[in-house]
Design brief:
Pfam families: Lipase_GDSL_2 (PF13472). This is Lysophospholipase L1-like esterase. One of its GO terms (molecular function) is phosphatidylcholine lysophospholipase activity. Helices cover 54% and strands 10% of the residues. By secondary structure, the protein is α/β, with parallel strands linked by helices. It has two domains: 47 residues; 173 residues, Rossmann fold. The protein has a five-stranded parallel β-sheet with strand order 2-1-3-4-5. Helix 7 packs parallel to helix 9. The chain is globular and about 45 Å long.
Length: 230
């Protein structure tokens, strides 16, 4: 009986010793992890200095509904548009929307939904500036190209357009132009190419006063293609 008890005690001690050794090993890694993590961070920073040859289109439904692969078959394009998105949505998920693609160029094309939701043009511009700044921080070698908001046509469908007006859109576009000038970024003016004589989105270019028709996208792709990175 005593012998069995001694065997159990020895077995318990052996298990405790193994556990202690394992714990020391784990703690050792934990204590040394600062340098290890730092090195990994440095390595990761070096890795992301190598950009991939792709063009990421960051936007809302106008981007989401744009068949980029069909429009630009000779280029590497990533459609990072999500219908209904505002600048706040993008800011909350910029890593998955832009950073992970390690892009050579990012086309920023959004802001209309902010105006529809009641944001002021100035608030929208500030949010767009924040997006641009974050992209520049996370992917410093990526070229950023700003795309203007397009006009709306409330006569086609007032409910779809909502609070968004062409006056507000033009204020945002003016802000984008100023950012582009200050930071030496390309700015693509779609507004001027898609408007009618009254400054509204041409009826043949839209399906509901807000979104583009095939004819509208045909115009857009012709304007954007010269800016794409091969």
């Amino acid at each position: 009986m005593k012998r069995k008890r001694m065997v159990k005690i020895r077995l318990s001690l052996a298990l405790l010793l193994c556990a202690g050794t394992f714990l020391s090993f784990v703690l050792g890694i934990g204590l040394a992890s600062g340098a290890f993590v730092k090195e990994r961070v440095v390595t990761k920073t070096k890795e992301i200095k190598q950009i991939d040859a792709n063009n990421v289109f960051l936007g809302d439904s106008l981007t989401d509904y744009f068949d980029l692969d069909a429009a630009f078959p000779d280029y590497s394009v990533v459609n990072s548009g999500v219908a209904g998105n505002t600048t706040d949505n993008v800011l909350a998920d910029l890593n998955n929307r832009v950073t992970i693609y390690n892009p050579s160029q990012v086309f920023v094309w959004l802001g209309t939904n902010d105006l529809i939701d009641g944001k002021t043009p100035q608030q929208t511009i500030e949010s767009l500036q924040e997006i641009i700044g974050q992209i520049q921080t996370e992917r410093s070698l990526a070229k950023i190209t700003l795309i203007s908001l397009i006009p709306v046509n409330a006569q086609v469908n007032p409910a779809t357009v909502g609070l968004c007006s062409n006056d507000h859109i033009q204020e945002v576009n003016q802000g984008l132009q100023e950012i582009a000038k200050e930071q030496e970024l390309d700015y693509i003016d779609l507004f001027s190419e898609l408007k009618d004589e009254q400054g509204n989105l041409k009826s043949e270019y839209t399906v509901d006063g807000l979104h583009l028709s095939d004819a509208g996208y045909q115009v857009v792709l012709g304007i954007i293609e010269p800016y794409l990175d091969a």
